[in-house]
Every structure is written in C-alpha cells, then in structure tokens.
Amino acid sequence: MIRVERFNQTHLSQLQALINAHLQTVVPGWSLPEEYIASRIESNPFEHICDPWVVERETLCALKRERVCAAGHLLRYGDDPEVGEGCRNVAEMNWFLAWPQDADAGHALLQAACERMDRWKPSQQWGGVTLPVPCCAGIADAWPHIATMLETVGFMHEGHIESVYAGRLDGVVGPGDSPVGGVSLRREACDRGVSFTAYEGDRRVGHCQCAADLTLGGRLLALRNWAELADMLVTSEYRSRGIGSWLVRHAAQWLRLAGCDRIVIAVAADDEAAGAGRFYQRFGWHSITRLRRGWQRTVVA
User: Fold this and answer.
1) Largest CB tally within 10 Å, which of 42, 162, 204, 296?
2) Alpha-carbon Rg of the chain, whole angstroms?
3) Residues 156, 175: one domain?
4) What's the CA gap between 227 and 211, in Å, rounded?
5) Whole-model pTM?
6) Residue 300: pLDDT above 90?
C-alpha cells in the first residue's frame, strides 16, 4: 500500500538518505545535513531573484510501510507584474527523487504532484531535479530511473545538457608570468566569490571566477576542501594565447592557500564541444557525470 502525504519532520531522516544517495552519484562524497534540507524546503535565500516570486510551496512524500520511497518539492510562482515574465504563473517540480527499486512509489508521487500542479492552472509546468548545491541542476546520467518516471507522466527534456568536471588542484602548476605582454592580473570580489581578472590597461580581457567555501560558512561540512570554478571567459581576440590557462593557474594557487584540494565545474555541452572539455583536461580534470536540464510537461487546459 502506497501513501502520498505532505512532508513532515518524521520524514526528514529518510528524505535525507534519499537525497544524499542520489547526490553522491553526481559528486563523490557530497551530502547534505538534515537541518539544511529542512531549511531549503521552507525557502531558498540563495535564489534571491526567483525565490521571492514563489507564492506556494508543497513537498510530498510517497511511503510504503512507513518508508519514504519517493519525494518531490513543488513551487508555484505568482502572476503579479513584479514576477519575471519567464516565471510568471509557472508551476515547477523543483526536485523529484525516488529509489530505483520503488518505481511504483515514484509514479504515485508524480501522479499526485501533477494533479496538484494542474489544479494551480499554470501557464507552464517545469520539472527536473535542482539540488541546493553547486553543479547539481538537472537529471544526472546516473539516474535513468528518474528520467523514465518523469517521462511516464509527460515530462520531456527540452533544455540543454551540462557536464560536471571535477579533479584535484595539487597537480596544477604555478601561473608564472603573463603570457601576453601588457596583460596584468587583478583579484576582485564578485558574486561567485573571487574573480581572477586579466586586464590590458583598463580593459577586461578575461576572468576566472571561483568559490572557495562551498560549505556556506560551515553548514555543509561534506563539501569542505572543495572549490567551484563558477565562470570562465576570455575575449575572442585573446583566446589561444595562454590567458585562460594563466588565469586558472592563478585561481588554483589561491584556492590551495584557502585549503581547497578539489574542484568542480559545470560545463555546457556547447562549450564542451567547442573545446572547454579539452581545456580542463589539461589540468587533470575530467567529466564525472552529465546533467539534462530543462524538463517540461504539457499544461492541462
């Protein structure tokens, strides 16, 4: 007998196990504590643009013999003028997870979730899995059971694909001198953390933006010693001249001083095909999983 009900605190330990088992197939060793999961169910302050537009949240759990076998987190965005046009009157399954052997519970959860979203009468229905850590937005190739369950209730992948690259920092050599005369480095604050920015005079010609503390001030201890390369850019006329590698080496040197020894990077498939994958492989970093982002379901009239 499968029972679908709203999340309550008695579900939290089993929900944590479900989330962390899936998360650890994306990035080795990562996990989330119960308190953090519970707080992200209530709100997501790190989504400072979109989260204030959410007018309703609902988390559902599917249980068999009091065991949480599947869970999903639903969001309804408002339809007021201040809500961004792309999110206005949208229903979103922010995340959905189920144990591979419990497809029946997963289907029951999804059926209840879709019925709930249909009652909201949204303009669009989005789906997928967005876990509240870096580089974990989309359906991982390690989760074919999740993709199959979503497709069964009408969700289709209509977005893009990202590869998650990861590796160690200790093999990255020091930066050395600028590879291009007249180009200097500045270290700057940015919303991602620290930007290692290349300038020719006052003109920005490239940057490598990194976050050194993925623990959020000690809340996520399993992410300790990990860094994220959040954004990498070199202007077209300066590419293939060593600027990108020089910036990454500066970043790696700084991150090691911060106590980081591993790094994770989300790379869009188009960028990977254009050479970003080969670029990161030079530093000993390799793709560990692929994520399919942007799932949608046809709205019931």
Assistant:
1) 162
2) 21
3) no
4) 6
5) 0.94
6) no
Written as six digits, the tokens of 172 are 């990255």
How many angstroms separate the Cα of 81 from the Cα of each of 57, 101, 154, 171? 20, 44, 29, 51
Tens-place pLDDT, residues 32-57: 999 999 999 999 988 889 999 999 99
Interacting residues of 39 by C-beta distance below 8 A, sequence separation 6+: none
Please name the residue that has the structure tokens 């289907």. 107
Q: How many domains are contained in the chain? A: 2
144 and 192 belong to one structural domain: no
Same domain, 8 and 152: yes
Please state whether beta strands 90-98 and 124-127 pair in parallel, antiparallel, or not at all (unpaired): parallel
* Mean pLDDT on 188-205: 96
Average pLDDT over residues 96-120: 98
Residue 27 belongs to what domain range?
2-160+293-297
Helix axis angle for 103-119 and 144-152, nearest 10°, is: 50
Taking the C-alpha atoms of residue 3 and residue 71, their distance in angstroms, rounded to an integer, is: 12
Same domain for 226 and 117: no
What is the side-by-side strand order in the sheet with 90-98?
2-6, 54-64, 67-77, 90-98, 124-127, 295-297, 155-157
pLDDT exceeds cutoff 90 at 299: no
Contact 2, 105 (CB under 8 A): yes
